[in-house]
């Protein structure tokens, strides 16, 4: 039973989350975020925060009279700067407050507590793509708008334009099943396959530090049905495309998560082949990273926000992100 709501925020204990807090945290997430029993939300939570190739997520809780009533976590991430130096970063992701305790400033207090401790620990920066409701709160806590990430699309056919234009709603979290290509998690668990594809990873700009371990983790959560379409079935060194299908309103879109190809021609051919094989209405991805075959969709991308911790964020124009860096989390 939830204890009575405190009259002062000072009644709350703020501390780092412990492994023993997990059952209470999951109950809180389920109650405050409306998790459905039929969705694998708990497994998804553990995949993000415990299995992450960049490390276990740091997290904080607010406790009142022995009950966890607030939660805040940051997903660990690693970038390479334009000179190839690694930069430790975190992404502001999951947060939850007991509905009976809303209005007590728990989100803000836990976030600032996390920012302070991460700065002392030497993490370089925090980044995220908050929605319109949460963005003002982040800006008040020292976040800054970096840029609108440029989106690119490619309709499968002229008649695909109608469902694409009509589907101006958020995409479903969970993926549609397709047999096109290979199971990406299984294929990229082979380090040799991942290493061959990563020969075509971005080498300029402020970009995710892609390693075979990262690629294996990033595509490994089975309910998301990530697929890998190779340019050649016999040689991953010729390039490939990681994607998943998701419903957005009336349309089925093919989200281009990673495009690891030796040249633009190969990238264009893979995007078109993916659309033909899946029957998706259109492909979508970010044009700030490799994006062969995707046409600009002005003014439609997510807004990237950043906050310095122990280092300064890069110039807005230096970010080289793919959809795999920002979708989902």
From TrEMBL:
SUPFAM superfamilies the UniProt entry points to: Acyl-CoA N-acyltransferases (Nat) (SSF55729)
Top-level taxon: Bacteria
Record-linked CDD domains: NAT_SF
Name of one Pfam family that matches: Acetyltransf_9
Residue ranges of domain N-acetyltransferase in the record: 12-160
GO terms for MF: acyltransferase activity, transferring groups other than amino-acyl groups
UniProt protein name: N-acetyltransferase domain-containing protein
Organism: Phycicoccus elongatus Lp2
